[in-house]
């Protein structure tokens, strides 16, 4: 149940960020839910592989390259989901930063209800 709530909160964050950021667009709420699912799956499956493959660069940049990996995950979600569009990597980077920030706020609200 907690996973479904987290996915729905992520979908809400995607819709809010799509309304705020001009370089990001989502067609509707169903597309936002699909984007949330795809991002969760990509973070679970692809991100560890990318982190291992780019470990030397990540160490040299003191972890800042992980931001680029998150932007690549967002661009991959753009490629997989038809109703979601990100114009370039800079918008994907800003979107991933703001999405992480909003997720941390929304997920903390979930944890305080217990």
Automatic annotation (TrEMBL):
InterPro entries: Phage_holin_4_2. Keywords: Membrane, Transmembrane, Transmembrane helix. The keyword Manganese does not apply. The keyword Transmembrane applies. The chain crosses the membrane at residues 28-46, 53-77, 89-110. It holds the Pfam family Phage_holin_4_2. This is Phage holin family protein. It comes from Marixanthomonas spongiae. The lineage of its organism: Bacteria, Pseudomonadati, Bacteroidota, Flavobacteriia, Flavobacteriales.
């Amino acid at each position: 149940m907690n996973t479904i709530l987290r996915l729905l909160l992520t979908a809400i964050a995607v819709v809010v960020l799509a309304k705020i950021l001009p370089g990001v667009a989502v067609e509707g709420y169903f597309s936002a839910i699909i984007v949330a699912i795809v991002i969760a799956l990509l973070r679970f499956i692809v991100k560890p592989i990318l982190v291992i493959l780019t470990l030397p660069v990540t160490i040299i940049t003191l972890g800042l390259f992980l931001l680029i990996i998150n932007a690549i995950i967002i661009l991959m979600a753009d490629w997989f989901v038809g109703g979601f569009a990100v114009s370039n990597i800079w918008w994907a980077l800003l979107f991933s930063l703001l999405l992480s920030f909003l997720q941390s706020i929304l997920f903390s609200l979930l944890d305080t209800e217990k």
